[in-house]
Fold each of these.
Amino acid sequence: MNVTYFLFFLFILFGTLIITYWAAQKEKTTRQFYAMSGSLSGIQNGLAIAGDFMSAASFLGITGSIALKGFDGLIYALGFTASFLVLLFLVAEPVRHIGQYTVADVIYTRFPCNNIRLFVSLSTILISILYMIPQLVAAGLVIQLLLHVHYHISVVIIGVLMVLYVVFGGMMAASWVQIVKTILLLSGVFLIVLIILSRFRWDFFSLVDQVSEKSPLAAHFFLPGQLFRHPLEALSLNFTLLLGTAGLPHILVRFYTVKNQLLVRQSVISASWFIGLFYFMILILGFGTVAVVGVEHLKAIDPSGNLAAPLLAHALGGDFLTAFISAIAFATILAVVTGLVVTSTTSFAYDIYNHIFKKGDAKETEQLRVAKIAAIVIGVIAIALSLNLKQLNVTFLVSLTFSVAASIILPVLVLTLYWKRFNRYGVFCGMGAGMITSIVAVIFGPMLMSQPLFPLKNPGIVTIPIGFLGAIFGTFCFEKHEEDIPFQEFEILSQTGISVKKMVR
Amino acid sequence: MKPRERKDWQELIARKKQFVFRMVAVFICFYFTLPAGIILFPSFMAHRVVSHFTVAWLLAFLQFVMVWAMGMIYYIKTVNFYRLIEKIVAQAHRTRRIEK
């Protein structure tokens, strides 16, 4: 085992445990556990939101994709960045105005029905677990490769850590681990960019010329069509990334960790700057990998390209920089999975236990106990699935997560917020249609079948419209329920944050 | 009078929604210009602009700029929106006090 790598991993481990210890001292109420009492500033929350986007797939995956496939690797970066506008314009403020801790709050407020809360909550838990698995598998492989620790042990270590952070530190630990990781990641990537540019005498175009010379794709590196043979696949991915990220529950709950709508806007806007600058730097890392490491060398070590960033760090700064970058990658995965655990835990304890089992009357201590038990159970499920899915190419789960989030959560959320005629039956039909088509499209798609019945790896371009159509169909087929809140009252609350009851009191 | 019956509320919310939907329409059109351009006009998108960078790259870079610029425009516009809301709420409270 390389001692430098080991020391850096230990540093991250102790750093995050100290944050958790500190958070555990402060966390005494459910409001603190679920949403840290809205105590983050706009910039801090922006860093945390950006951190949620900067997953292992973003940092390791996009660097490798750009190095191997050139222009097409950039599509992910564009989709993630543009999705901030969907969040900002359509979702962020209304979610903050209406909800308290979860996405289900928002839909339930307009359609007070426990089955809706249950359905949304189960979808939240499902999406979070589906997203956790590829992260855990990636973490296991990274640690196995760098520290030569067995895959199973690596996954268990990460899994136990994420559960510990949530059980003891709740949202506060999850948020601060995320913030620290984002700062580390941005600084680490910036450092590598500076080293690359200094190698090319600060001449960016000389780096670009080298890329064109050294890439096996030559001039085609700068043209589309290397990653996606069919343009429709690229279009579908664009569509899914744009809308899928705005439907991810662990992003949406970040609007509850600040005090008011002004800070929500500041959070989203600052996050868009952080993430945009991050992807610019990732682009240079991708170019640097081609020019400094070489594509053949990268493919020989890792054909998928996921180790592009650590290999580049090694070529530029030896063991020390590799250890630093790998430790940041470790922290990245750790922070993202912790955020996912806290989101699903909150959804279970608050939506299912408190509101459905206890009719909203669960005591604080009871809720906290259930939340902690839920964190352990969800963690164990995710670890068990990750241990058994190592042999499978888990990228289909990323595709499934985004497709499910974009086809289930987003249509229902947008229609709840903006469509006057929408009703509770539309919610059920929309979510059901989105869920079934997403699962069917992925199971019968090219990710899992050699002779696929459905041609697209990313089915969003088909499943998202079906999610919307299902919701519209349900609304037209059934009459409005008498308990549904009048849209105008709901709209005033969602758009202004002012409760009508308060106004007329 | 209930807020939902007040004309000023309705107008304000309608104005905000109109602004938001316009922004969404502009940004979605711009966002899909790149994939649509690649499908419909591949040779134009492959036309070099600077160094090895093509029109497609230029559009990709502009998307980052678009996200930052539209985010800032939205931020500035909504500051006024919430100021107006505060004004209306304060006015409503004043009227209620007088009625009592």
Note: The first strand of chain B starts at residue 48 and ends at 50.
Amino acid sequence: MTSITAYEPGASQLLMGNEAIARGALEAGLGFASAYPGNPSSEIIGSLAEVAREMDIHVEWSVNEKVALEAAAASFAGVRAIVAMKQNGLNVASDFLMNLNLTGTSAGLVLVICDDPAGLSSTNEQDSRPVAKWAELPLLEPATFQEAKDMTKWAFELSEKIRNVCLIRSVTRVSHARGDVRLAELMPPGRSARFAPTMLGQFTPLLVTLKHNMLHQKVKQAREAFETSEFNWYTGPEKPELLIVTCGSGWYYSLEAVRVLGLEESVGILKLGTTWPLPEKLVQEHLARTEKVLVVEEVDPFLEGNLKELVGDVFSTLGPLTFYGKRSGHLPTVGELDPDRVMTAVSTILGRERAVDADYAKKSQELTQSMVQNRMVGFCAGCPHRATLWSVKNALKLDGRGGFVTGDIGCYTLGLGPSGFFQLKTVQSMGSGAGLACGFGNLGKLGFGQPVLAVCGDSTFFHATIPALINGVYNQANFTLLILDNSATAMTGFQPHAGTGASATGDPAPSVDMEGLCRSLGIRVEVADPFDLQETTEKILDFMRCDGGVRVLISRRKCALVRAKAEKAAFKVWVDSEKCRGESCGCARLCTRVFQCPGLVWDSEGQKAKIDEVICSGCGVCADICPASAIIREAA
Amino acid sequence: MKEKDPLNVIVTGVGGQGNVLVSQFMGRALVRAGYHVTIGETYGASQRGGAVMSHLRISRQAQYGPLIPSGQADVILGLEPVETLRVLAQYGNPDVTVITNSRPVYPLSVAIGAARYPTVDEIMGALEELTSSAWLINATEIAVELGAPILANIVMVGALVGAGLVPLGPEEVELEFQESLSADRLDLNLKAFRRGLAEARARQPATPSA
């Protein structure tokens, strides 16, 4: 698709929120960008990587978020830098951030955090905004695509003005939505990068209390800038019956609610783009003109809490105020917002009915209910993870000592469910599969006798598994690490990583040798082909039985979606309906009921299995699971 | 055709059918034609067989939010019939127009024999009751004929434009293909688009009965 530099200044371009953020950085003269992929943030660095060569800037996929932020602090050398991460990534980076805030910066450094309300592509639901208060760093929240671009550009100026990191918090419905954005001029970065610390200890947090005091001063400066920011605005009557205070994706939902309910004359909206520190004078002016306030924001009542904190300080200047929002129960405290939820809140507070066609709603539910089944998410047709977990399942069963799998973050997290045969028993954060195994693997003297298999993907291995692996070796934990190497960061959009031999910009890069790295620890390391079910099962079994210490088995096959783009199918696969004995086989429909590849379906009319040729990827693995040898695999 | 403003279009299907691409092609052509466009997408599970939809909001006047309120879809473009019904149940209204691919992508529960997929007649019956007009297009069959089942989404874009349900002419969409697609993919995409266009132009919507 068209890049973020393809259009002329002045043109309107349809941009994803993340692309708009990236474009804003380029309009600010960006020189350096880094991130570890994580949705909904991945396209910020992804779209910058596409144009890195043409803009002659450095863009990288870093090994994890902490390193990404540390690398972006190259802004110390006078280069504007951006770093992007999802909410979980912020947690990884926070150790560095909580010192960097005291150190301060010189050239602009912008940290974009993309939260994922409802955890649509995450293992947790987290509001990252308290980090602004915690680290005392200014926080901006874009509400529109245009603002995502313009705000990012301005964030660099603010960062340089207060000489500290500026935070931008986006959410899925801004980052992963698209809208038309009017473009401004691109600005090439300066070419005189040089690190020249002028003061003793300028780039350390030492003299902590002095630095902490300086940090307070920077917050004050930011607040002053926020009081007159163009990213805060009000629409509505002079004295609204209800004042909605909102930020981020809440802006469009609030606007829609007021429009659909026809309340333009009685409800006002104060939209804040600068949410911490609060522009107190501005907010106070608006609070003084109403008696009812509804706060519309994603995830936690962060803005609501800050407004109330302000009211606590200045209540003598305000009239009686009632707050509505998440704490009052008018808006949900979990999951994401949408226009309907905001409409319900507004109509409940004001006692107005929302006109709905109840007959149609009832009829449509009745007519469709029995026809619309849930669509379970599962591994793709031809996914190597399904094959590996099939072998894991069989090996654990053959071993019979109650062994289990500690899971990790990636596509293979789906192994918690039916398409991975429920094999994963734990999932927490990046690298935690091996970390947990370090503990379980040292419970032997406490009576623990179950084999432990930790899994992680190739990208996760580099991100956070290596320290846990070294810990396991050093402390002589007893477990097998199974690396599911599909040669991509598949879950987030196939970004390259340290082991793929390609850089973020698509140039050749040194490939870190995963096997060599593991071997250097003096442990047993082998590679298996997951599509060879028998060999993989035997290897897993053998690794589990070789008790004592850590061993590593790498199950290696390219991601099915990557294969589909680059290679022809290896096999033509079909079901020989003479050989398939259907329900009378005794296998209890092992292929469709248990193996559950979407390319293999149960034909309820013919009462046999069949291949859906549109979906089948031609991996041929299912041929090995059919006890009647009815699934035929022919070289394509 | 008098344009509704905003025009709310939902593109729906199953992860892997190219839903996101469809909304992007149309969105870009609409921006070029001077419209404000917002596209909200359900993501995350999109490549792994989950239910996927894109909300397109098209306006001459202003930009709208990325999510359409319940009951306020004007047009539903379905790449998969049961997904079309799923969206209809939440976003439909008596004035909604539906244009959908006829070819099922079986949910796992159906593929493994644990649930039944509705018949074409059952689906059409529901569409007749719940829409002002509905079109059923054999998009996957057409795409298979062209040798690329994945292009069913582009056939459906052709049908949508051919049926006159969005304020875009064929040449505006084709221009977008020419800009966005590499030369080796362009020809087949144009063929798929034109087949869909012809399919919709050749007939009236299948419902409601006169």
Note: Residues 568-635 of chain A form a domain with the Alpha-Beta Plaits fold (CATH 3.30.70.20).
Amino acid sequence: MGRPRPGGGRPEPPAAAPGPGGGWPGLSAALWRRPWARATLLLTPALAWFVLIYLAALVVLLITAFWRINAFTTNIERVWNLGNFTLIFENPAYRDIVLRTVGMAAAVTVADAIIAFPFAYYMARLASHRTRTVLYVAILLPLWASYLAKVYAWLLIFTHDGLLNWSLGKAGVGPVNLIYTNWAVFIVFCYIWLPFMIIPVYAALERIPSSQIEASQDLGARTWRTLRLVILPLVLPGLVAGSIFTFSLTLGDFITPILIGGTGSNFMGNVIEQSVGIANNVPFAAAMALIPVAIMAVYLLGARALGAFRAL
Amino acid sequence: MMAGKRNASRAARSALILVAAGLLAAGCGSSSGGTGGSGGSPGAAATGAAGKVPTANLPTLKTVGKGEGTLNLIAWEGYLQPQWVKPFENQTGCQVHATYAGTSDQMVTLMKNGGGGQYDMVSSSGDADLRIIYAGDARPVNISLIPAWKDFFPAFKSPAFNTVNGVHYGVSLQWGPNVLMYNKKSFPVAPTSWNVIYSPKYKGQVTVPDNPIQIADAALYLKAHNPALKITDPYELTQPQFQASVKLLAGQRPLIKKYWGLASQEISEFKNGDATVGAGWPYQVSALKGTNFPIGAVIPKEGATGWADTWMLAARAPHPNCAYLWMRYISTPKVQAEQAVSYGETPDNKLACPLMNKLQKGSCDLYHANAPQSYFNSISLWKTPVVTCDNGQQDCVPYSQWQQAWTTQVTQ
């Protein structure tokens, strides 16, 4: 049967008797006797919110994707058709945009994993308690700063007369023109989403008992072999959990490409933003928005198979 | 464990059934609505302008009352400078809240989604006005309540882009050209043709607006350089003329540093040395001049596209008195002159010229406030491309295709 309510402090009355005059003591006793009622009471607000706002919005999105707009007034016409999807799949430009977005998300994820692993390893296993705290704060601190401030900071670094070219000029190397290219977008994405990779990898690394690594070494495995056969398999769920963040966040972002990107920097998020905010073609935006949803569904199924959700 | 799993799958199944039921219900409801509505006649809808204005019979104000204390405006950057907004707020008590838009399309969308009571007015251009009017997002204006209107140049009193069947949906504001901007350090001699923004010589230094109406700029260039295409109006393009213009822009893509979205982006591109030449508005030119940047601007020999803006009244403007007070204020010669000099455009009020010269010597000539009709004719003012060409033929490419070509073939 049910466990005593945590955090209550006072011992609960085990008997069924309602308190004098009903009220809260009676209620808590009644709830204590019925675990299902407790669960309902706690979960209903969150679940109602989830179903009404989140799922309903997704269903509306799904339906809208099969409508179209009036070409002149851009009012929505509720005529069922597959035009939006055929346009996305048959037009080479939209196909390129989908592939470019997935490619960028994958590249950012791999790069962040490569950067995050040694960093998290140092934090979890080598650093002193004090250093670890300092590093932790260093990772979390940028998350408190405004997203836009961070992107604009990179704009100032990359721009033609910016910090990067100024430093390269001082060092006697020619200027590089990174601003308004996809390389710039890639670097900024890697920087912005890095904490979301480091934290789950760090959590996974910290959970590995030292005894397992010692046992591996006692059995004759050298550093590389221990890393490959013992540490990496144990960290994999953490890496996959982190990759869910970096991948999905890159998949949906449109602000960095607008501010930092150049001529070939239309991503799925930009097409959606332009379709809604400029062309007022909500049905087409809905169709486009379903693609990252589908990609993430496949990705999450794969991640579950790799055990990512055990690391959360 | 087993039982839990079975429960979970049952829950999932019932959730699925619920979703399916919802889909069905929504489907039934809307398909019946669709057959009754405009669904059957996409052809008639696409020609657009032939239709009726849904808001044409809404009542207008008879007298302007006391301001409501607030005025929510959608504007181009540079149109709501404190220099003339502050005195208006002090006179009328209407506090101005501004939303800035980067393109006409964005203005149409903002009016559609915020026309339900957020916004009072929009300073939209001739290529957006009719779309706003026919979508039912604009409200008739009683022009007799705006005294300064009688001093407007005749071309801007009741222009076809904001007046339908004699009903005004706003008051004309100002107009001007889209100019060729260049960094004087890179161009000691001012360029005379738009060909510099199509020339590989300036690869990676060119910047143009991220705006489908830019196809008209290419058409204007081809009108002069490829007479075989027989382009007469850059906003009325037949399929071959349209394809040639889009092809010119697709070929320009490798030369482009950035398609700018907001005027402030183009200003920082020039300032940071990322772009040296491009298409822009006089606002960017005067903003850069204000910081002593060596910026130059010309109207090249091919002519230029341009805009004529209107302060349009929203169909459900929550502060109509403040909106009328604003229309009265913004059309007076003094404010017209202030905005013209600040932005670098041409006022619609013919009495503004001497006041402009008072603000800045020679600015009346500089910004063409008393220029002859021939100057007006050299600017191709933005208008919404529709299927029906001016000669009555139904073979012009409509704006929705401009938008699509811009994303799929030009900027990609």
Note: Chain B touches chain A through 52 residues (CB under 8 Å).
